[in-house]
Design brief:
Blueprint: H1 29-39, E1 51-57, E2 62-66, H2 79-89, E3 95-102, H3 112-121, E4 127-131, E5 136-141, H4 142-145
Length: 156
């Protein structure tokens, strides 16, 4: 019988600032840290490509996620999808910024499917931080990454 796995613990992450770290001078470094912490929990036994993502809402809540692979590739979850699931389970809101980090690729971007999923809940001007293992290396917008995404309002 199929079942739905729901998070059993609070998926919001406490944020700590380390002012000794020169990378932490970025106002969004804490979001990167949440994404990096999530990446450490990735389940990627097949691709060996752990990814972490973190979403900050306009009211300051942070939700993180990691990729979760399964043997029936490609039925796993991307890190952004996992973070979005936590965001939705806590009531959603307005997404202000997103950070994505991968262990083996600097400036990893969300895949096409995750760009569309993010666009469902965020605005084109939502900041998207591309990170390496030390911090944010480039900031762009969701609209720049998905300029002609599907718009749900036309389906209503």
């Amino acid at each position: 019988m199929p079942f739905l796995l729901l998070p059993t613990a609070d998926c919001r992450l406490p944020i700590a600032h380390d002012r000794k770290d020169p990378m932490s001078t970025s106002p969004s470094h804490d979001l990167f840290e949440a994404a990096r912490a999530a990446m450490a929990k990735a389940y990627a036994p097949y691709s060996k490509f752990p990814v972490g993502a973190a979403i900050r809402t306009s009211d300051g809540r942070v939700f993180a996620g990691a990729n979760i692979e399964v043997a029936s590739y490609p039925e796993g979850w991307c890190a952004e999808t996992t973070a979005l699931a936590h965001f939705i389970m806590d009531g959603g809101g307005e997404i202000a910024e997103v950070a994505v980090v991968a262990e083996r690729m600097a400036q990893v971007t969300p895949c096409g499917g995750c760009r569309q999923r993010l666009a469902e809940f965020a605005r084109p001007e939502t900041r998207l931080h591309l990170c390496n293992e030390q911090g944010i290396v480039k900031t762009t917008t969701l609209g720049a990454m998905l300029p002609l995404g599907f718009q749900g309002d036309i389906l209503k």
